[in-house]
Specification:
about 290 residues, two-stranded antiparallel sheet, alpha/beta
Length: about 290
């Protein structure tokens, strides 16, 4: 059984697309097809169902993901077993949602680099579901997300921190038109929001629907830093994780708007697949994240 074929299997399982897997691996699509066929022949079972342009894991294919991850984990372990124990080397691959990548990772990565300068770090951004699929196919080591509590037998959660999501605007506007405003009045103000898909935005929309309200932003953009800069320029109101605007709140550049809407809380979570081999650099990063949230 060739490791190349197993790696290709994990890539196809993660992308659910032969052509995307081929592009990421640097192979032709026909080469990927041949490798999967070779693996299926060796295992004497069908691993994928091909429906249109998408491919889906069969039941046996889903079972094999666990074995494939174990094989790649042991292989990675064998590659590094002879290296000096006191020198952290290798790679660390982190997948994070946009707000985490923008607000939390820069400080964490700086500290990590100071401790582990010989470790190569790769960051991939995406939605929680996308990142979880990447972790299942061993494309990333960690999923670092902001969402409702994620619980599943496939996952080990290393860090869980409650985070508040707040309405914010330019500080000098709060004393006038925004002080003590009701949610009904606030919904009439111009809003800048993240693109649909963030868990906290879904929760906001759910709470508003209970009051027969909806939010119609003047701008939706995926970059949290851009939203903050526009709000700082007086463009309107936004709804963001408090940790993304903490510095601006402390400096009184932005102010939080209190309303009669129930508070929205999410959880920043760092987790990894249960079959993932825990490297020393992964342990060090977990330690840094835990200390960061103290």
């Amino acid at each position: 059984m060739e490791l190349r074929n197993i790696n290709t299997f994990l890539k196809v399982a993660g992308t659910q697309n032969f052509s995307k897997a081929a592009e990421q691996l640097g192979y032709s699509q026909s080469a990927v097809t041949v490798q999967i066929q070779q693996l299926e022949k060796e295992l004497q079972t069908q691993l994928f169902e091909r429906i249109g342009k998408r491919v889906y894991l069969t039941e046996k294919g889903q079972e094999f993901v666990s074995y494939a991850n174990d094989i790649m984990r042991v292989t990675d372990n064998a590659k590094f077993f002879a290296r000096q124990n006191n020198v952290l080397e290798g790679t660390l691959r982190i997948g994070g949602v946009e707000s985490i990548c923008t607000a939390l990772l820069p400080d964490l990565l700086l500290k990590f680099y100071q401790i582990c300068p010989n470790v190569q770090v790769t960051i991939k951004s995406g939605a929680t579901d996308e990142l979880m699929e990447m972790a299942k196919s061993n494309e990333i080591d960690f999923v670092y997300t902001l969402d409702k509590k994620i619980i599943g037998k496939e996952w080990n959660r290393a860090v869980l921190t409650e985070e508040e999501i707040v309405f914010v605007t330019l500080a000098d506007k709060v004393k006038s038109s925004y002080d003590g405003i009701s949610i009904q009045q606030l919904m009439q103000k111009p809003f800048i929001l993240t693109e649909r898909g963030a868990a906290y935005q879904y929760e906001l929309e759910r709470l508003l629907s209970e009051k027969d309200l909806e939010i119609n932003p003047i701008l939706e953009i995926g970059n949290t830093e851009t939203i903050i800069n526009l709000v700082k320029r007086g463009m309107g109101v936004s709804f963001l994780p408090q940790f993304t605007v903490q510095k601006e709140l402390e400096k009184h550049v932005l102010s939080e708007i209190k309303t009669n809407l129930p508070s929205v809380k999410m959880y920043s979570q760092l987790f990894y697949h249960k079959n993932k081999w825990m490297t020393k650099q992964m342990k060090k990063f977990i330690e840094l994240v835990k200390n960061f949230h103290i």
